[in-house]
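Researcher: Good morning. I'm working through a list of sequences from a screen, and I'd like to move beyond sequence-only analysis. For each chain I'm collecting a predicted structure so we can compare shapes side by side. This is the next one on the list. No need for commentary yet; just the structure.
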Amino acid sequence: MNIYSSDFILSGYEISGVYYMLQVDKHAESIYLSYKEGRDAAKAQKHYFTRNASMLSSWMQVLDYGALDEAKTDVALQKLSETLDILSVKLSKDSEKLALHLEKQSGDQIPEMVKSVLGILKEVFELRPALSCLYTHYYPVLKDLMDYHMGTLTTEDIALPLSIQLFSIQSEVDSLKEDYDRAREYCQAVFLTTNAPGSDLSPEIIAAIYHNYCMESGRNDFSVDYGERMSVSLIPVNNIPWESYLDKHKNMFHSSGEKKETHNISDFTHFLHIGIDHMLGSESVIRICKLCGGYFRIRYTSSQEYCTRLYGDTKAACNEYASRKSYKEKLFQHPIHQEFTKSYNKLYGRIRRGKLPADTPLMDQLKRLHDDYYERYENTHQKEREAVWKEYIEKNKELLE
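Model: Good morning. Structure tokens for this chain:
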């Protein structure tokens, strides 16, 4: 069933909610809409917005910590504001004005309005699946409008409940940007504070310190004030920046808590809290890849510095590419390999000038000698390596004479 069609709106399906499922054992997530026909639970169906994605990928994406792409969350938020203009939300606080507005609609204006809103929602949810929690807010509004158009509901039936529902949508959409900014600020403070690989300070401890910092600053802590809507900026405590405060208090706090795996996400704020709770419970931090500059999630005790996205136009992930690059740099700086390169170039020059055949066995002998002495050099004590290196030089000379 296409949930973005007017037929679905008119079908009489009962929406039970949008769910965010974390499958910890599979390290996967799903976001889906659950709906059924009437009260028949046996006919319950699901529409998946995202299925079997990597754990917390939607949460990181909606906070712009996801893959490097041009689809930013603020674009999705801007598109949602377009639905408010289409639905004439500015009239929603006055049910009488809304009733007059509806009576002026004629012909296919309401179906076209519903179609336009559904089109925007489809585009937004494909861009940022996490925002699909808003579907349950839009559905009753669109259903009432279509029922009114079909003559099932009168203006008197629809005006007051619709004005309340429209006001609810406006409040939710208006709060999205504020919630995004506050959640992003929280994550920057808690999950990106200790960006050094192998840090011994867990995110839970940092979160507890940050909560205390917020209390002393006279501000709300986004992670614990769910339901509150208050725009704040980072205020130093007695002129002490957050990083300094953290360093000073890092051995004084600890926190813990149990985590759920499946959640009925009723609004955007709830979704953000689910991700934060899971990040804290799994002792995860967000790091910036030293190769591509993208964000990635990792346990705070890990020393990983590179992500697993494909790097540029290569077929290698950043961590693989960086490993190969590091190996090559180390190899070309190795004294045995440097000497081998000189010998190889000397031998190749003789072949190119026709003094030796191209299939001379000396080339293979030179490579075997390199591999043998490279391994011996690496397995020799630091103080005795110079002797191995000098012996290798002599062997090379013997081969090339």
